[in-house]
Amino acid sequence: MSVRQLWEGCDAAVWARKLDGRTKLLILFLVAVLAIVVDNPRTLFLLFTATLLLHLSARTSIYKWQVLAILLLLGLWGSMFSQALFFAQTPRTPLFVIIEPTMPVLGQITGGLYIYREGVIYGAVQGLRSAMMLSLGLFVCWTSDPRQLLKALITWRLSPQIAFMLVTAIRFLPVLAAEAGEVIIALRLRSDTRVGRKSIIRHLPYIAKPLLARCLRRAQTLALSVVSRGFFLATARKDEFWHTKEKFVCCLLIIFTIGITFSKIVYLLSEQGLYFGNLRIVYDWTKLYL
Amino acid sequence: MLRISDVSYRYKTRKIPTLKHLSLHVTEGEMLLLAGCSGCGKSTLIKAVSGLLNTAGAGELDGKIYLNNKDTAEMTPEDIGILVGTVYQSPDDQLFAMTVSDEVGFALENQGLDENIISVEVQKVLERVGLAGFEQNSIHTLSGGQRQRLALASVLITKPKLLVLDEPVSQMNPQGVEDFLQLLVSLNRIDGITIIVVEHRVNELAKYFPRLAVMFEGEVIYDGPIELAWQKIGSAEKYGLREPQKVKLCRFLHLSKLIDETSKVVDLIKSECKIEKTALTVRSKKACSEAIVTGKAIRYRYPGSTSDTLQGIDFELYKGETVALMGFNGAGKSTLINLLGGLAELSSGELDLLGGTVGERAYEIGYLRQEPDLMLLADSVWEELTWKNKKVRKEVVWELLEKLKLENNTNDFPLALSKGQRLRVVLGALLARNPKLLLLDEPTTGQDQQSLEEIKKLIAYFSQMGGCVLFCTHDIELASEIADRVIIMANGKLIANGAPEVILSDRWILSAGGLTVPPLLEVSEALLLPKCITVEGVGRYVSTAVMGRL
Amino acid sequence: MIKRNFCWIVIAVFMLSQTAFAEGINLETVYPYSLEHKNIYKTVGSATNPFYINIESYDAPEPQDVNVEILLPEGLTFNEDDDWQEVKTGKGLIIKRSWTLPANYGQNFDLLYLRANEKLTEGKHDIVVKVSGKSWQKNNNITFTHEFGEKNVDAINLQEKQLDSSKFNWYIQSVTLPVDNLGNKDDRIQERTVYIKDTALESFRNRMTGDGATNWAAVFNHPAAHLLLEMRNPQQDTRILKFRAELIDKATGKLATGLCTASQSDNETEHGWSGKSGIEDASTAMISLDGKKSQAFIIPLYVDYFRVVEGEYNLRVTVFGNGQEKIQEVPITIAKKRSMGLFAVAFSFGCFILVCLTIGQLKKCIFDIGAKGAITIALFAAVAFGSIVVPTTLFGDLLHVFLGPFSGLLTGVLNGVLLYLLVMSLLVIYRKPGIVALMFLLKWMLAGLMFGRFTPLGILSYMVYIVVLESILYISGFYRKQELTSGYVFIVAILIGTADAFITMINLEQMMFFYRLYYADWYIGLYMLINGLLYSSIGSWLGYKVGIKLQQVMGE
């Protein structure tokens, strides 16, 4: 499977592909809000599991599951690694000492650098936030054409000119990638050493000028073409049909997310002194589940 | 339909006007071929007609342009866009949407039309240009020719009265050119659309246009019937035009008329020249026996592919030789040239370059890719020629700059030079390394006649110095003119390998290699001569006319 | 008149000579002593009370040794002290010590603990204090009244006496925190939780300037919380006791860093009045038992903001003095108030609102730069997306495996150098407000459409980029400058680098706030310095160089 195929949603289940772009984007956004609001590890895990279930029901291919797994594991590892180093709660148990606090300069600046056992676990739990967003992001990505999402943005009154710019950028992404590859080939061909002929990384700094010059020439041609075709006349499109069921689900999720966010905010305010007795049940609920 | 009346335009950054008192009148339903060398003002004229010349501080426009008797100065570019559909060169750069239907429907969407109406109109236009069924296709999946048709469809959607096409076929192979021009002719004849094509490949387009206008230094120096043009304008090369080969033959044989019609040329030759059955002169053949490249049973398979792209190829390239590599798109030409350039490694077989592998002798190879612009890396021409090349001496660089006609551009930013100059800079950078083998992938695509001549000279110079040139091309005329040998490929195999006169005059090989029949082959066949494909070839059997032009 | 003046002069000279040559001693003694000076000269039951002695010497040309003798009445016992010797006589107990009084001026003081036993009769008693030098002696006589006190107290005393009366005469009843400075507890505030302010950047600055982690001035200003210490004093002792609060690691039971005492300021290097408390990891104080059976103390807890670590601890409260030590441990939570995080989020929201309000200007910008400009921005954004977002998404995590959180320093080459190269080169070609906004907006939308990254944090982050960069460019006059000179662009590049450092900080703080992550202050500083200032400045400068070349390709 090519990288392009990987990023296309042609093999997803029909229901997932047919979902309106607005529904997908809204769910994505609301879950991102929930990921921020929720603190309870169990709830975080439940949300994360829910995103995986979406993949399951969308019949994500084995190959894509593999990619998802790799990205999720790498992401979780990243979170665990960083939190293992910077965990700033007690109790904490240093597993390794990377920099002694007494070490000149570095030790003084960092105050010592350790790998904390509790940080690894904490990082894994907190990593669930980014994991669920990654998982849902890929679900949206693998079940939709960029056009579908763009259409959603346009119906939400995205300026047609900005929409055009966006489409242009997406359209030329593979072209630019191919051209960047072409520049690297040119650099390899013109290299004076055998290593240079094989290497790619060492040529990267020289890509910018030819690639951007090409962009400017392309912009010249395309501009002439689109102005004649009424680029500046375009106005925002009227509302497009949005399936009632989808609308209903979105409304429910919005209410749910607002409710959760409200609970969390009043709970946090209560901790800071703004306490209302009649919200006690909300505080209890938030403490237990959020 | 279009009346350009005494139009002059000067860019603020320039001293001399780009358009000088230019007048042109195109009536409804006409087909006009507007030709001229690079920089003669063709593109500026198109912008002026489309109402896209930036007059707000960037330049001064005088004179009037009328479209359907309406002054374009009083119209917005969008209004003009409904009347005039403009297709620019390089279709890839003017298609912005992700799917075919989105691209075609763009103009109507901007007019605020209902989606259902747009959908119907898109369908109709796509059918008209031969892209029906491609509605939901990604633009990336289309071939070059299909993209050009799509670009055409995207302007046809507004049902323009006038179509202006700027070098629409400059990137196409001969077969694609023919198909596309057939479509234009049909649009003109059936739909009554007035068509102006701006192009310097006059040789291939002439037969479709009754009228030719030639621009030079911002002026129209000829405007009239195409068959009279060659006689009137004199040296076509001076104006950057690529004359039809038959016209060249008429000029070479000093025939009384310069015409592009086979039967008429044959009649003229028969009436004005003496035809010999044996050659009057013999073409000198290069004696070269020192092989630079030897390929044996070369096979190559792309990763993930189920079949070999190259299927056991044997060939040799000799010192001082210029070889043309021809064939269909996808025949394996680029793969072979990439193997020679060291960009891929053989799946099996042997490839010997100067007694070593390609990897070992990489420094002896100069490889010009299809997009020379993407090979320009430095901030000045001088720097470009000496890029990662410590061995080259200053004197050599200066000599090369003279040969490239770039001696006055040493400090210029290469990417800001003209198209022809940019190509020459890359060629110069390759030559500065003194390679033994020069690989050129479609080096003449989109180049005007002047530039083409410069490239020919450079290739000739290189092979004279003992270098070997292998170039990919669809241009039979170029191959027959400069190649010592032609290799034709089809389906990953070599189907022909030999002298151009032999190979390119074999109709079976031409057909199998996806090549068009050389114009002079028909002439020589009609004259019952041994098969000839070049002017010089015909000239070997036909004596110069005594009663024709001098 | 002259006579009168002469008299004055003689008197003045006499006084001066007296001042120069005379040496003086002031002897001050108090029993029972208390900080509040309550119940003075009165003792009750078998309470232990402090005896205060202070010898003030002045105008002494050289140090001198003095002997101090204190004659106690019968029934008054002395709690052992290394510096004092006791001699029993028929009249009572004499306690002695010698002191060296310093030259010029000096104060020598001490507290002794005296306890009444059952032999001390009710009524008035005297304590005689004698201080003698080489050729002088000073006496002080203290008269105090002793009462037996209530019966139940006696009962308790008797009971305690059976055990070890000296150790059970006072104890810690309870420890409550947090309370306000008046000792009031607020039920709405989480019990046993101390919220402390966020000093991440301050700490980083201190470390960088070599001042050490702690800014004592900041510590000195405000206590982090107040603690209500309730003491039971059944024997109604009047005593000065020392109080110490320490954080104890729950897992290991070891002393943890975090608490301190406001006894040491920046320029104060000597011990404070409660000992070396600024250096040890404890909050210390002195408390005075004033003879009541139950007494509450509001004690400030000082936290070393720069070293304290959030989390669950035990707070060990120790009250000690006079050979006795009472300890109580209570669980405590230390929670940091993320002021920087809050600031970052508030700032981002501000930026978001600002962009929303000015979004109409972007459309105007597109019309100003024309279709060509708009397409150029789109293509540059595509390059930015393809060369920055895609590799950092796909390979960034992989780098994380090896480099951990420091992988950002490598991917930062793309996010810093390459991004600003593109932005700056675009700005050189189209120098108009709104270009940066459009570029970042497109880059964000591309990430959203291609990778499904429509997150609140993403929106806020990009809004910060837009507002900060547009502002810095506007303020620096970049948009109004007629011609861009290398020198000027160099300054702009540094400014952009600084702006990016700020953006980096805001974004990391937001990450910490929203995703409850931890990053060390030095780590944030490192990113600000390398990814922000260094990479972005280099990128901007390179962008300028590329931009002026690309201008030549622009055509007419």
UniProtKB/TrEMBL annotation, chain A:
GO cellular component: plasma membrane
Cell location: Membrane
InterPro entries: ABC/ECF_trnsptr_transmembrane (IPR003339), ECF_transporter_component (IPR051611)
Principal location listed in the UniProt entry: membrane
Keywords tagged on the record: Cell membrane, Membrane, Transmembrane, Transmembrane helix
Coiled coil regions in record: none
Record-annotated membrane-spanning stretches: 25-53, 65-88, 95-115, 121-142, 248-269
Protein topology in the membrane: Multi-pass membrane protein
Protein name: Cobalt transport protein
Natural source organism: Phascolarctobacterium faecium
